[in-house]
Amino acid sequence: MDTLPDVPMDWEPQITPQANVDTVQYGDGYEQRRPAGINYVKHQASVQWSSLTRDEFDQVYPFLRDRLGLTPFLWTEPSETTPRKWICDAVAKAPINARFWRVSATFREVVA
Prior knowledge:
Layout: E1 14-19, E2 21-25, E3 31-35, E4 41-52, H1 54-67, E5 73-75, E6 84-95, E7 101-109
């Protein structure tokens, strides 16, 4: 499995944990919850690279575009030491000027 190219991001990505929980509501207002599987908490990440040189852009953008929504890759969150498996759900590019590019993306953690 491929690993996201090691091109530094501007700042810490925004990481949001999301829980997949089954909920049953009873007539008296009581609600019961349970995890939907053993890996019920997964993370979503919003990442951004600004002021990428053309060489850095050519490493990051094609990597994400070619795997968009389909092929997982390994990435280690800045606060972690172990890589996890992610899918890129969205990627956008914008030229800043003739020499620099901006890339932003949304990653979703996957298990399989």
